[in-house]
Amino acid sequence: MRAAQLRPQPTLSKLLSCHNPRRLFHGTRKTTPSIPEPRPWVPDVETFFTLIGRGLKRHASKFPSWEALFSLAPAEFRAIGIEPARTRRYLIRWIARFRVGDLGPGADFRFVEDGVALLRVASSATNDGAASCKCVVNVPPVPAAIAASSSAKILPSTLVRPIGYTISGLRTIQGPFVRTLPGDGGAVVKITEGMWEDKRGRKIDGGERRRTEVRFKRRIAERKAAAEEEALRKM
Fold first, then answer.
1. Where are the alpha helices (DSSP H) in the chain?
2. Would you call 159 exposed, middle or buried from its count of C-beta atoms within 10 A (0-12, 13-18, 19+)?
C-alpha cells in the first residue's frame, strides 16, 4: 500500500509574513483639524455666532480665541456647556461648513468696517465705445462728501463682486439684507442676528408622529360641537 501523502502545514512565521503590517496602524493616526483664517465679514467668534443664529451668541464668551473654537473636538462642546444637543450639532455643522467655505451672504465681502459693508454700482469702461457693463461691487468706506462728488461711477475692476447682489432698474442694488442709501450712495449690508441661520420648520398638529392622533381628536371635537349646536337649535 502506498503511504498517504501529508500536506505541509503553513508555519506561524509564514502566516505572519503574509500579513500586511500597515493594517496594524489603521485608525491610530488622528489628523489635527484645520483652523481657517477669519474673514473680514467674520472677524471673531462673537460675529460668527451672531450670523448663524439659534441663540449661540450667548456662548461666545466660552471661546477665548478663534483658534479655540476650531480646535475643539465634537465631544468637547458638551463639556463646556453647549446645550441642547441639537444646538451642539448645529454649531459643529457650521464649523465644518466654514472650513470648506460653504457660507452665507456677505462671506466674500473684502471691505467691512464696524460690521457694515458698502456696496456700489460699478461701470466698466470700454475703449470701442460700446455700452459699459454694470455690476455690484464691495468698496471701501469713503466719506459722504467724496461719495457724493464722485460722478464718474467708474470703479476699479479689481473690486470684489459679491455673490447674490444684483442691479434692479438703473442703479438699485438688490440682495439679502441690503439697505439702499439715499441719493446715489449705493447700499449697505449690516451684520444681523441670524443672517446665515438654517431656519427650522414649524410643527403643525404635533409633528409627524402625533399628527394623525391630534387631527382625529380634533375631528371628534368638531363633530361633537356641531351635534350640540344642532340639538340646541331644535329645542
1. 12-18, 45-52, 66-71, 76-79, 85-100, 144-149, 207-234
2. middle
Burial per residue of 196-235, b for 16 or more beta-carbon CB atoms within 10 angstroms, e otherwise: bbeeeeeeeeeeeeeeeeeeeeeeeeeeeeeeeeeeeeee
Mind listing the pLDDT tens digit for each residue in 57-116?
999 999 999 999 999 998 899 999 999 999 999 999 999 999 999 999 999 999 999 999
Question: Are 121 and 167 a contacting pair, CB within 8 Å?
Answer: yes
Task: Delimit the domains of the chain by residue range.
Answer: 45-100, 112-190
C-alpha cell of 7? Answer: 500536506
> What does R_g of the chain's alpha carbons equal in angstroms?
32
Q: Indicate the angle between helix axes 45-52 and 85-100, nearest 10 degrees.
A: 110
Please say whether the beta carbons of 107 and 100 come within 8 A: no
Q: Which residue bears the cell 457724493?
A: 148
Cβ pair 120, 186 in contact under 8 A: yes
pTM of the entire predicted model: 0.69
In angstroms, the CA 126 to CA 130 distance is: 6
Rounded distance between C-alpha atoms, residue 114 and residue 144, angstroms: 16
User: What per-residue string of b and e applies to 18-43 under the rule 16 or more CB within 10 Å gives b?
Assistant: eeeeeeeeeeeeeeeeeeeeebbbbe
Q: Furthest-apart CA pair in the chain: how many Å?
A: 116
Least confident of 21-30, 96-105, 171-180, 187-196: 21-30
